[in-house]
Write a structure and sequence with these properties.
With 235 residues, this protein is of the alpha/beta class. It is built from 9 helices and 7 strands, in the order αααβαβαββαβαααββ. Helix 2 packs antiparallel against helix 7, helix 3 crosses helix 4 and helix 7 packs antiparallel against helix 8.
Amino acid sequence: MSATDATPYRQQDPQFIRRTFATIARRYDLANHALSFGIDYLWRARAASIVKSWAPRRILDLATGSGDLALALSRACPDAEVTGADFCQPMMLEAQKKGFHRLVNADGTRLPFRDGAFDAVTVAFGLRNMASWPDAISGMARVLRPGGHVLVLDFSLPSFGPLRAGYRFYLHNILPTVAAAVTGDRGSYEYLGESIERFPSGKAMTQLLDAHGFTLAEAEPLTTGIVSIYTATRR
């Protein structure tokens, strides 16, 4: 299914998402590292390097979860003030255990920040889970200063046919089985595969950013396209 088909903006159920992440919070990081074979560290390092090049002073890490990207940003941008926002308390408790404490309990589609409060907004593997992607993107644009930057890091589907087919098999068969062994929760990771299939990627995502408050949107595929980084500038 293409992200440009009839349901690109299908809403997620916020209560389902909150319950799902609350259930797996304590083993979330372990599962991520196992399922990505540790490559997730490199993805976040690349994202942090891009943000560093923007020299921001105020960064919002949206859907910060257990804080891995927020911590990577803090290391890459030591002079910046990094704020993490999430609406799942158990996930934020995991971030606090790692020493990241500048946290705000907030829904990504209803951000409690003033207009233009940040120089950069990041979201890693979180936009896909929000109730409305257009509303979330518009909200990110609102809290960015004009000329500020957004970075979205999320799963995508490889464009090469055989690789795409193999990755889909992994998503729907191998990934839930391994995740069930690590977290005891197969259902949450069956949802993961389904959500990746629905999520817009490549040109579909850059068009979504350009349509909701941004310009100069670009996509950078990583690891043969199973993950992509999207960047754009606030109009």
